Amino acid sequence: MIEYLPRSKHQAELYVTQFGAEECVPGHDFGPAVRNHYLLHYILSGEGTFEVGGTRYRLRKGQGFLICPEVVTYYRADSANPWSYCWFGFNGTLAEWHLKQAGLTLSSPILEYDRDDRISQYLEWMFESRDYAKSRETRLTGLLALLLSELAEFGPAAASGEKGSRAELYVDKVKDFIELNYDRNMTVEDIAHFIGLNRSYLCSLFKRTMNVSIQDYLIRYRMNKACEMMGNAELSIGDIARSVGYGDPLLFSKIFKKLKGASPKHYRSGTDVQ
């Protein structure tokens, strides 16, 4: 039972290429061979072996293995207790990132998931998506994303060497939060609460990593966004101020002039401030 799908023309970040399931006969094998996409196998019953990079893994029900693009692999069902498995083929610019969140990489290709039958449920839903004539591709991508989120939440932790430092993770969270919320009236305390760290500790960590305080980073980000909006003639200076989180246009103008060396009005017109 297998279904192949054409390459997505609309969803370059993450898309399904195939999925299926098979009850293997004793000794059934595949490879050595390479694939041009990611292929995630999950064992429903039985046993078998998976080989990649000179390492052989003995696997059973509740485990699985990841095949990465252009990597030689070989796998074989056990002769006495052959496995049955399902698989999900996919690709996209964010595929590797999603897999890393689940702790699955070329150097760590083994999946551990035995808490429930959710993975086989996602496979069933994928087959049932045939009923969605207009939106099947979107539904399949959504189901794949849900599957990967399940593995990230309950699968093995990503290798520490590939996660980056804890400081970098917290700094990235601060930057992401500011990017998504700079238009709101927020404080550094709000950011710290969202991330779940003590305000003083987070500020110290951010300053040490970025050589700028969170408050200054937020102000600079807002003013740079304001500069981008200056080209929109439909927006007044007050509109721009509110759009970057300042309810008081006078305060916005004062901060803008201090940072950019000209008032918003002069900056927009391109004339020098006197």
UniProtKB/TrEMBL annotation:
Q: Which UniProt keywords apply?
A: DNA-binding, Transcription, Transcription regulation
The segment(s) forming the HTH araC/xylS-type domain are 172-270
What's an example of a GO molecular-function annotation for this chain? sequence-specific DNA binding
Key word Transcription regulation present in the record?
Answer: yes
InterPro entries (UniProt xref): AraC-bd, Homeodomain-like_sf, HTH-like, HTH_AraC, HTH_AraC-typ_CS, Tscrpt_reg_AraC-type_HTH
Task: Name one matching Pfam family.
Answer: HTH_18
The superkingdom listed in its UniProt entry is Bacteria
Q: Which PANTHER family does this chain map to?
A: ARAC-FAMILY TRANSCRIPTIONAL REGULATOR (PTHR43280), MMSAB OPERON REGULATORY PROTEIN (PTHR43280:SF30)
Protein name as annotated: AraC family transcriptional regulator
